[in-house]
């Protein structure tokens, strides 16, 4: 199933998705979750590094 047809598919009480459709949807959800987690980890790492640099700068000023 292609991405456009997946995007247009909506779960409702009238349409039952096929096993292939559910598999494709869950694959995309999994990929999106992995990408979101990756971005969150990168942002957290960047914040840690910025905070570490600020602490080191403050310690250097106090010396």
Question: Your description of this structure?
Answer:
It is rod-shaped, with a radius of gyration of 22 Å. The chain has helices at about 5-10, 20-60. The protein contains two helices and no strands. It is mostly helical. It is about 80% helix and about 0% strand. The mean pLDDT is about 85.
Number of strands: 0
By DSSP (H or I, 4+ residues per run), the number of helices equals: 2
Q: Calculate the mean pLDDT score and round it.
A: 87
Strand content: under 5%
The CA-CA distance between the termini, in Å, is 63 Å
Specify the structural class.
mainly alpha
Shape: rod-shaped
Helix content range: over 70%
Throw out a few tags for this protein:
2 helices; mainly alpha; 63 residues
What does the secondary structure layout of this molecule look like, with pairings?
Blueprint: H1 3-8, H2 19-62
Q: Short summary of the structure?
A:
By secondary structure, the protein is an all-alpha fold.
């Amino acid at each position: 199933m292609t991405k456009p047809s997946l995007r247009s598919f909506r779960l409702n009480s009238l349409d039952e998705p096929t096993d292939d459709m559910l598999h494709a949807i869950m694959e995309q959800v999994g990929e999106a979750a992995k990408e979101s987690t990756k971005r969150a980890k990168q942002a957290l790492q960047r914040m840690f590094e910025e905070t570490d640099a600020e602490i080191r700068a403050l310690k250097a000023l106090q010396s």
